Amino acid sequence: MAFELPNLGYAYDALEPNIDAKTMEIHHSKHHNGYTTKLNGAIAGTDLEGKSIEDILNTLDMSNGAVRNNGGGFYNHSLFWTVINPSNKGELSGDLKNAIMEAFGSFDAFKDTFSNAAATQFGSGWAWLCVLPGGKVEVCSTPNQDNPLMPGVTCGGTPILGLDVWEHAYYLNYQNRRPDYINAFFNVINWNEVASRYEANK
Ligand code: MN3
């Protein structure tokens, strides 16, 4: 069974004005679709075919550029759409809130740390909030389509919140103002989804 581009589950304009409809449409229907198609092409006929994307990334040969870039792209965007789903967003609470408070001291300190990771990731990449076994959380960033599931990535645990800081994610609306886009991202985070990923992976 080949990987399929997941449905967003909401309209392209549902995140306006924080993330504009045109960016969402191109990002999902062109960029994510491209990673999906190329991932399927890269694994076709190999022993990776039929494995879950998590298994593929966890045991990845990092010299396999086609699977690294397109498998990462497939997984990262699949996570990203869910953590900005505008339905039933909830608020930061419960065990996830406690873990964030324990790691960073305050929500504002967490936001600063995450925003700084996103702003200072040179060129294209992602900022992440990850959960480690036992429930601790940490922030890190990765270049290109790498992510914390991949071997040897200096960013541990399981990602539960991710922010795409490739220019294709924000340039139409924000041009070079990446910090404004990062700030807007905090308006659209679906904390219920992040909390459910935290509970499933702690
Ligand atoms: Mn992207």
Notes on the protein architecture:
With 202 residues, the protein is mainly α. Helices cover 49% and strands 10% of the residues. Helix 1 runs antiparallel to helix 3. Bound molecules: manganese (III) ion.
Blueprint (SSEs and pairs):
Blueprint: H1 21-43, H2 53-58, H3 65-83, H4 94-104, H5 107-120, E1 125-131, E2 137-143, E3 158-164, H6 171-174, H7 178-188, H8 191-201
Antiparallel strand pairs: 1-2, 1-3
The site of manganese (III) ion (MN3) has 7 residues, from helix 1.
Considering the chains and any ligands shown, give keywords for the structure:
49% helix; three-stranded antiparallel beta sheet; 202 residues; binds manganese (III) ion; 8 helices; mainly alpha
Average pLDDT confidence is 97
Helix content: 40-55%
* Major sheet attributes: 3 strands, antiparallel
- Percent of residues in beta strands: 5-15%
Q: State the separation between the terminal residues, measured CA to CA.
A: 29 Å
Mass-distribution shape: globular
Oligomer: single chain
Small molecules bound in the structure, each named once: manganese (III) ion
Q: Residue ranges: pLDDT <50 for 5 or more in a row?
A: none
Order of helices and strands: HHHHHEEEHHH
By helix and strand content, what is the structural category?
A: mainly alpha
Radius of gyration: 16 Å
User: Which strand order spans the largest sheet, edge to edge or round the barrel?
Assistant: 2-1-3
Tally of contiguous helical segments: 8
Count of β-strands: 3
